Task: inverse folding
């Protein structure tokens, strides 16, 4: 009988762990989606301030380690060309403060840096 009670306790604990991990995963996924939008908006604002106007963002590839591990990442931002092509620039995204895993529960401030070599790729769009 004691053996059955132990099995029920360990089975119940497993479910708590599974539920906890699912909640962390869903919450972190939502956080990652919000960060993708924020990084895209910040990148476009930086480029507009640098006189790169009328850019059309096609998408962004942002590693999930920014949301879950609160670590610096390099994101790929895709811009549409007038001829239908795509130009990809690399953007450095560095979180400001925060702790791994716990950062998904709070707002994440970050710095965005675009290297001059990446800006040169956009020069073709600027001259069109």
Result:
């Amino acid at each position: 009988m004691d053996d059955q009670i132990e099995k029920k306790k360990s089975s119940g604990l497993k479910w708590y762990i599974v539920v906890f991990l699912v909640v962390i995963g869903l919450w972190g996924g939502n956080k990652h989606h919000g960060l993708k939008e924020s990084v895209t908006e910040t990148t476009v604002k930086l480029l507009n301030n640098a006189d790169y106007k009328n850019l059309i963002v096609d998408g962004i590839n942002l590693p999930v380690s920014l949301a879950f591990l609160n670590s610096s990442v390099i994101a790929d931002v895709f811009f549409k060309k007038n001829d239908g092509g795509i130009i990809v620039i690399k953007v450095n995204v560095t979180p400001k403060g925060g702790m791994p895993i716990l950062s998904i529960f709070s707002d994440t401030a970050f710095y965005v840096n675009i290297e001059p070599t990446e800006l040169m790729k956009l020069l073709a769009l600027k001259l069109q």
Remarks:
- The mean pLDDT is 84.
- The chain is about 50% helix and 25% strand.
